[in-house]
Amino acid sequence: MLTPILNTKAKKPLYEQLYVYIRQNIESGEIKNGERLPSKRKLAEHLRVSFCTVENAYAQLLAEGYITSAQRKGYFASSGQMPRAAKTQVQTELRQEKPLTSSLKYDLKTNAVNTEDFPYATWTKLMRECMREDPKLLLEPIHPQGDYGLREEIARYLRAFRGVTVRAGQILLGAGTEYLLGLICELLHSSGFAAENPGHHKIPKILTSRKVNPLYIPMDSEGMCVDALLKTEASVAIVTPSHHFPLGTIMSIGRRRQLLQWAEGQAGRYVIEDDFDSEFRFVLKPISSLQNLNPDKVIYLNSFAKTLAPSLRIAYAVLPEALLAQYRERLMFYSCTVSAFEQHTLKAFLKDGYYERHLNRMRGIYRSRRDTLIKGLAPLEESVHISGQAAGLHLLLRAPALLEEELVKRALEAGVGVYPLSSYYKGERAEAHTVVVGYAGLKQEELEEAAALLVKAWRD
């Protein structure tokens, strides 16, 4: 009989503690593949917990493939788990690909979230309900733009919380913003796409892979420099107006109007609004979308990667009416790249109000993590300037006395991964004293220790 020590006073729910205990025992081989697990009722009685606690833990293990169920026989550790030798080989290959991160104790990367914060119980419950209500869900074809009911829920959310002018028919679902950006490149037929400089590493790669010429436009304190944009042959501009990555700049209303005037100045010009990190604002009120100012000239792009989990791979684009007609005429042969099962689960998650509650909870969690990291770096306040704390899930740390390479090197020697701001630029940059750090993927106690290590590494 399984006998984990469950802490009733811990913040982590009992079902999650039990789930982690069984998962770790399966991964380590303590519970052999194919070994039968206790029934839910017997285990609940043995541990003196509710039946629901065990049921939720088993449901999560079942959803992730750690256990299987057989009618009237019970639950068994999954025989489909990867053998230890094969897993070791994969880990070895990953270490070879990224030698600099193999020795890191804490990686302050910007593309991570802590999976322990994911609402496993709610999501699993909705998955079961979707399957029970519609057993043929996985067999039926889905609309190329995605499930209409989910698109209605996304449209409702965007109208209410982001000020987007949208109807469900304009929304296009896809497996990540990278996929959707590639589809938009194919739709627009433009040879010149303007991208922010600095900006996300992936955008130039996506554009180049689609045989599109990326044109790099500098940033200032108000956003993309439209004066520089006007000097190019670009007909499409990709911007992050609500929270620029990595600078954290909020595009001013004057610059927004200037950018839209550029788009209106010639037929075929469009602005792609990547609403990056717009859900996480800690100081100022949420800023209305750029799309709201001119729905005919702005393609709105967002995803659930940061708000739920990157592995869900559910993103969406809002197409202007003119582009929607072109998409339906030319590109409707592409199948939707998100499974119907996940779409129906997300639809229920949005419709029943779970998403809004989850966002509110995560804002509180991320605010606490941000504060923990800033507090931990307080001994460096005279030598390190912190910016970007008003929104988003990363900070900029600027140390005028040290070059970026020295900051990164010292942090790496202390076991902490930080990232040079200059790596996000195309071309040379005069000043190089700033690093980018993300805090969403670590727990508060881990951030405390990571900050202490950085203080020790940089203080001298």
Please tell me about this protein's structure.
The chain has 460 residues and is of the alpha/beta class. It has three domains: 14-77, Winged helix-like DNA-binding domain superfamily/Winged helix DNA-binding domain (Arc Repressor Mutant, subunit A), CATH 1.10.10; 98-118 and 357-458, Aspartate Aminotransferase, domain 1; 140-338, Aspartate Aminotransferase, domain 2 (3-Layer(aba) Sandwich), CATH 3.40.640. It is built from 15 helices and 16 strands. The protein has an eight-stranded mixed β-sheet with strand order 4-11-10-9-8-5-6-7, sandwiched between helices. A four-stranded antiparallel β-sheet has the order 12-13-16-15, with helices on one face. The chain has a two-stranded antiparallel ribbon with strand order 1-2. Helix 6 (148-161) runs parallel beside helix 12 (340-351), helix 7 crosses helix 8 and helix 14 crosses helix 15 (444-458). The radius of gyration is 24 Å and the shape is globular. The protein starts with 13 loop residues before the first helix and ends with a helix.
What would you say about this model in short?
Helices cover 40% and strands 14% of the residues. The protein is α/β, with parallel strands linked by helices.
What are its keywords?
16 strands; 4-stranded antiparallel β-sheet; 3 domains; single chain; 40% helix; alpha/beta; Arc Repressor Mutant, subunit A; 15 helices; 460 residues; 8-stranded mixed β-sheet
Task: Could you tell me the CATH topology label of the largest domain.
Answer: Aspartate Aminotransferase, domain 2
Question: What's the helical proportion of residues?
Answer: 40-55%
CATH-level-2 architecture of the largest domain:
3-Layer(aba) Sandwich
User: What number of structural domains do the residues give?
Assistant: 3
Rg, please? 24 Å
Please state the average pLDDT score.
Answer: 87
Low-confidence stretches: 81-101
Which geometry do the CA atoms define?
Answer: globular
Q: Helix segment count? A: 15
Structural class: alpha/beta
* Major sheet strand order: 4-11-10-9-8-5-6-7
Determine the CATH superfamily of the largest domain.
Answer: Type I PLP-dependent aspartate aminotransferase-like (Major domain)
Could you tell me the number of beta strands? Answer: 16
